[in-house]
TrEMBL record:
Keywords: Membrane, Transmembrane, Transmembrane helix. The chain crosses the membrane at residues 21-49, 69-88, 95-112, 118-135. It holds the Pfam family DUF7144. This is DUF7144 domain-containing protein. The keyword Membrane applies. Residues 26-138 form the DUF7144 domain. It comes from Streptomyces sp. R44.
Length: 146
């Protein structure tokens, strides 16, 4: 039995199903980071504009003024959106920043739970998917770009 396979160019890795899922996940993670960034921007603007937009549920250890939360979400949203754009452009810094910022977003959304519990949980789940997708895309080795 002869195999009709052409040799791969040097430096390329064989494709795999998990690699394809990770590559698609990376693209989706970039889009999700853009969307999450813009949603955080809107969430921040709402918190800055009206201090009574969000209702606090129960007593909570982490008590911040809602205007402060608005500024945190606005600044984080802008940075997350920039990182999402970097991921879509294929920049390695976007991937590294995406993992770091998605981790930071999980932390901030956890602290924001008493104000918007369902949205905070949903945003945390998205951020965890983003971390997984960016961390498991092994198509590129150290120093290589998309």
């Amino acid at each position: 039995m002869s195999q009709n396979t052409a040799p791969r160019p040097s430096g390329t890795k064989p494709s795999s199903t998990s690699g394809a899922w990770a590559a698609g996940g990376t693209l989706f993670a970039g889009v999700l980071m853009l969307v999450t960034g813009f949603m955080d921007i809107f969430q921040g603007i709402a918190g800055i504009a009206e201090d009574d937009v969000y209702t606090r549920i129960g007593d909570y250890v982490f008590k911040f003024n809602l205007t402060t939360w608005g500024w945190i979400h606005l600044i984080l949203g802008v940075i997350v959106a920039i990182a999402g754009f970097g991921i879509l452009r294929g920049a390695e810094w976007g991937r590294v920043a995406g993992i770091a910022l998605a981790s930071l977003n999980v932390l901030f959304q956890f602290l924001f739970l008493p104000y918007q519990p369902w949205w905070a949980l949903f945003s945390m789940a998205i951020s965890i998917f983003v971390i997984w997708a960016l961390a498991t895309d092994d198509r590129y080795g150290p120093g290589e770009t998309f």
